[in-house]
User: Fold these one by one.
Assistant:
Number 1:
Amino acid sequence: MSDGLKVPTMADYVAQGKQPEVLFWVGCAGSFDDRAKKITKALVKLLDKAKVEFAVLGTEESCTGDPAKRAGNEFLFQMQAVTNIELLNAYKIKTIVTACPHCFNTIKNEYPELGGRYHVMHHTQFLKTLLDEGRLTIEGGIYKGRRITFHDPCYLGRANSVYEAPRNLIEKLEAELVEMKSCKRNGLCCGAGGAQMFKEAEKGNKEVNIERTEQALDTKSEIIATGCPFCNTMMTDGVKAKEKEKIHVMDLAELIANAQDL
Amino acid sequence: MEYLPNICFAIALVIGIGYFAKNVKKLIRNINLGREVDLSDHKGQRWRNMALIALGQSKMVRRPVAGILHIIVYLGFIIINIEILEIIIDGLFGTHRIALKILPRSIYGFLIGFFEVLAILVFVAVIVFWIRRNMIKLQRFWKSEMTSWPKNDANYILYFEMVLMTLFLIMNATDIQFQELGSGNSISQFVAMGFSNLSDGTLHIIERSAWWLHILGIFGFLNYLYFSKHLHILLAFPNVFYAKLTPKGQFNNLEAVTREVKLMMDPNVDPFAAPIPDSEADIPAKFGASDVQDLSWVQLLNAYTCTECGRCTGECPANQTGKKLSPRKIMMDTRDRLEEVGKNIDSHKGEFKDDGKQLLDDYITREELWACTTCNACVEACPVGIDPLSIIVDMRRYLVMEQSAAPVELNNMMTNIENNGAPWPYNQMDRLNWKNE
């Protein structure tokens, strides 16, 4: 399947004098993290199936600056932001879809003041639109009736009040959505936000991801769904630590792609 | 001598309100030690939030037990205080229940009867609050930052309210004329039974004593506010009004940084040009915050508004997993330091003398700051729109941009972003490799 993946870049589009419908902002995790790359590919297959004309920035893409900003390095953040905005504006980008809530939040909320104004969508929102418009359909129903719980990524949920789009997708899979003890606006963090992903946690009596994984396991779900590559890592580690590897941690794009047998 | 009570009352009123006004002035002065930030936007939305969240208590009821009890005390407090108007007029002019001369008996009776019902409800609610704190020992009231003063402060407030409500009911119960009126003594008629074998003279003395203690207690309570977490009854309103309206995930972009970054990126700027004379003045002396004066006035208002309920800390993932960070402590520390700075200014003729202390390290440790996942659970949990996260981020900014004091792993992450555009050491040229893997 690997060489069958068509991933045009913005440079390709410009060379043909065309403009894509959306820019797929892959993000650092989606580009480099082995687990997250699978999510990226699942989303690309879905975009392809729905005949969405999309492009990526490829080697021109660079970190949004989110982890630098949350860590307190406003300089580095703004340097990244200004460089990215220059590129996005040069390409006259209108709509951006990303599978990373951190990229989503930063580009949507923090770039406009610095000159970058785009319509930014999280991939769960975009997939929902594609399904609603009938450009994508779910057949087969391999998840029909199966218990799935959804972990709200902080930067999608509380940070941007997107709670329904991902849940809608689970409903469309005809799966049984089971909520955790803390969900939606009360959702518990996976422990990776605020640049914690890149450092050891401070001394405590437990890891945040273990606490959250326990909440997820309490729902007796077969699948822990999420919409963030970092949450995915934290929950996958949590499930491993609890020796419950038969519980799968999956991104919603992967679930939809699997349902499509892509 | 006939006017002695009136004079005493007037003096008590002037002292009570005067001292309070003096402290309010100090409060405003202290809040204005913060950085200027313009929040005159979206007035309509701000008024709506204030009506819904502060007046309407919409976020309080997310925890139904505490929320409903709180609404009882809050409504009781506001509505019973209408009675203060009558008490002040009576006290100044030596009248007795002046409102009876203005309002029809039935309306007056209805009002006082309603106040009495509220008073007993408040009394019961306050007792439940006391039990939750001191007997059930709800976890969030017993975290490590809840040292002796915060714990005592909370209990003093509850005792104050119990005593005031009791005095209000005794005052009505021993008021012979009022009891004979037979209207409005919905609760006090039962309290009066306890006094039934006392002479009229004794009753009068008890009634007067209760009346005086009640109003003096209210003046006392009013002046206690400034020193207490109970300030929230006033500040919750402006605090909600000025609370953040943008998405919670949106952190502010530092303007001073924007200016510098734009200069750095602008190819037309002559790097050897002499600085424009006025431009230096716009750049703050410091990036981020190491002390209260570096925070904005809204963040300082937040600190004074915090009533230490601990909902933020209860929801904090770091705190739940045993880390030192407690968003409530961030707010308490900010207020304590601000008070210290305020006192310093007072004792040095209006000018701050360096005391060798600051908010960072002397109050809030780096360990607390680095434990935050910026998940916004604390901000979501606060019933009055306090944003502890913004203080944490401003202090991180100081640590990183002024002191280069980020944890080593974060420095590595930032170096990677600088060098190769990703938080990990992968080459930017490999960004699209996944498509062929």
Number 2:
Amino acid sequence: MSVKKIAIVGNPNVGKSVLFNILTKQYVNVSNYPGTTVEVSRGKMSINGIEYEVIDTPGMYSFLSITEEEKVARRILFNEKPDIVIHVVDAKNLERMLSLTLQLIEAELPVMLVLNIMDEAQKNGVIIDARILEKELKVPVVEAVSIIGKGIKELKDRIEAYGNRL
Amino acid sequence: MLRDREEEILEALWGEIVEKKNHMCDISVLKDDEAIKQLTDLDYVEVKNNQVRLTNKGREEAKNCVRRHRLAERLFVDVLDIKDKLVHEASCKFEHLLHKGLDENVCILLGHPKTCPHGRPIPEGECCKDAKRIPKKLIMRLSELELDRKATISYLETQDQSILQKIIAIGALPNTGIRLIQKFPSYVFQIGKSQFAIDKELASSIYVRV
Amino acid sequence: MAIDYKGPVEYSIEIAIERICALLNASYFISKRSVALLILQDDKETEEMVVANEGEAVDKIREVVKETKSHFANAITYELALERQAEVKSIVDKAVKIKKESIGTRERLSRLTMNPLTGIPILLFVLYWGLYKFVGQFGAGTVVNFIEGTLFEKYFNPFIANLIIKIVPWEVLQGLFVGEYGIITLGLRYAVALILPIVTFFFIVFSVIEDTGYLPRLAMLIDRTFKKIGLSGRAVIPMVLGFGCATMATMVTRTLPTKRERIIATMLLSLAVPCSAQMGVILALLGGNPKAMLIWAGIVGLIFLFVGYLTSKILPGERPSFYMEVPPLRMPSVSNVITKTFARVKWYFIEILPLFLLASIFIWLGMLLHIFDFIVGLLKTPVELIGLPPEASTAFLFGFFRRDYGAAGLYDLNKHGLLNGTQLVVSCVALTLFLPCIAQFLMNIKERGWKTGLGISVFILFFSFTAAYIVNFILTKFGVIL
């Protein structure tokens, strides 16, 4: 069997690149400015001996693309046929970002939701029950603070479990 | 009094001639229709070479028909919570009952709605004009909102599809809470926990209520 | 889990989806339902995809789309967004609790950066300390002096020159390595001693500013001004990055939403935004002469706005609109700044070092075969026309291999005391505006296509000399002594 592909998607400035860096132990540029990932980065990761190809995409707000980068991101989903699509959201802005999750699910893509920057959400008084969310969406939901590596282990476990369903 | 069939033709003509701004309308298919004859006799329409025009009298009558139909739709959808296919059927039947006086009551009851559930404009009646005279500005453009005042987005209005897409992308959708933080040099507002900067054009396309 | 797009009307979007799905025969990686929704929203790429896959059914699909639209006065995108939003709300209501918030220090500071009354002083402060003091004076001054003056000229160059002369017997070949324009004495020296420290310092500042989240605030401050030149606040990123490396910045213009904005930005980056290497050299050239520096900055700034304004008038297309998320201000993490600066410098260096060395070889060859003497001779007339000593034409020619390389050539001229104040300003203006370096020239073509990329370069070639001529004329005419 070929190497499984994982695409990381999400709104601009939610930490996709940080997650990519952590998963692949490679470096791509990270910044506090929406839309800095212009090129698509690819890296490798292995979980318990299984190889994955990880693809970092430019930020997208919606399935309906406005900018060139959004088109790039969407083309990856359409053409690369990823085995897992990790949708990274900024947890404190869940309400605004969940719409894309719904669109990904609607497209019947193999979605996993990562609630990133949980620490800022908690500081801002946003409390999320990930289990309820999981039940509502019927896709795996993982909480994380990717910049300090929190939640990455769980994410990897879930990726493995999710990958095995295929 | 007009029959259902004639009212429906008037409504269709309103859509074609007034709303789509065509000067006249081709009716070769309806050439020998009884209803067209009836409307011609009543001096509501003029037919020349298969082209039909609304007379001033007909225009007024058509406006009222459309108004009744769309008010009826509003009533069914907003108040009676009827959905799907039933709406059209029910409204078609009901509109004919809403003659003079009754339509005003429904309009007041619904709070002088501007559009039908399809988003098409409801022609104004006398009651709407009266209501407008009372200066009560509940709905305004985001660009006119006071700073740091909590408001809720009512609707988006723009002819530009790409502007609409941008506003949707940042999640400024109806029924979302919004607070304006700054007006100059650009508009900065907060939705949920995130802030956005937009220009005047976008800020003028978002209507909010306090 | 799927949203049922029932809507309030009898002809629901759901019916349209069903009908389109029934017409879609090919298999797509995403669900037919999604394909149908995208088509209903007039998505070009999806339509192309469907046209390629479905053959005759396309017309029927278009029919359905047309009919569906006729039932809605609002755009379908809007209708869909509303229904999705309702679904999202119901999920969030179940899974999320939000506590009241208060305006904290961070929020207060954030507002200070966005209010023009306080924001513009903050911007000037950042420019003065970040760019002028740290990159200009410290990076391009102190550090460059040390590396170039002490390390290279005192120790490295004599050492390597001796070594090469010992190993390589032919004088011509010796020149290739350690001559006046040698690979090592010129190419490597410029790259390592001059450009590398300046670029590194610029990227440190840029990374810090970027990580704090200050840039979107700058974008929002500058949007109104940028609208006048056909750009939006969004263009602030490529523009600021252009002060680091215009080549890299040209690549980043991809984040701009319309082709028109991308062309204007590319044009301005090529013309009137000096990259950090140039900036460093220009600061070094004009540093001792604040009046000359001010005139240079004023002229380049004016040209930036003027050319932007003209281009935006000439180029067809709609006015840009501006929307941007303003992320919270964050404390930049030292490790992130270091890795980022390192990655950028590495990218830059890998990209430019070969060009520097290649340029040295070209120059060496050109000198040897007297081709360069010929071109330098051709350039002499325009160079003298703008009031510069003929020696400056060499700097302009090299300027094409890298803009900063040419600037560095001027730097050498000045060191030998060949330029007076007016000539310094004129040459700095000409060089700032002059043809993009070869790397950027290639990037322009790669990003904008042959026609536009070449067009921009030809325009700049003529414009830079004309502008320099006018500047020289005015300064001399009015007897400005600098």
